Amino acid sequence: ISGYDLTVRPARTAVYIEALNQSILTHAMIVSCCKSVDFLLGFLVGTTSDNVSTRWGRRKPWVVVCFPFAIVSMFLLVTPFPFSGDAVFSDSDDFPCGEIEPDSATACPALEQCLVEMIANGTLPAHNVSSVESSNPPAPAALSVWFALFYFAYYFFSWTCTMIPYDALGMELTSDYSKRVSLFSVRVVFQFLGYAVPNAVGLVLSNIFPTNIIAVYAYTALVLGIVSLAALLVLGFGVSERPEAKTGQGNEVPAVVAVRRALCNRPYCIYLFIKFPISLVSLLPVNLMSFFLRYGMKMEDWASLYFTLVLVILFASLLGTPLVWYLTRRFGKREVLMYVSGACCPFFFAFFFVPPQSFPTAVIYIAGVFVGLLTVVMFVVLDSMLADIIDYDALHTGKRSEGVYTVAETNLQQFIEVIGGVVPLLLMSAVGFENNGGCECGCGVACDEAYMRWKCPGDIGYSCDGQSTFDSPPLFGEVGRQAPCVDQGSDAVVWIIRAFLFALSGVCLLLVCLGAKIYPITKAAHSAILDATESLAAGGEATDPLTGKAVVRSAASHAQLRREHFSARELSLSSHWLKTQLSGRLLLWLGAFIAILAGMAASGGEARQYIVAIGAICCSALFVLVPWDAARLQVLLKMSRAERAVGPSAEEKDNSARS
Question: Within 10 Å of residue 303's Cβ, how many Cβ atoms?
Answer without folding.
Answer: 28
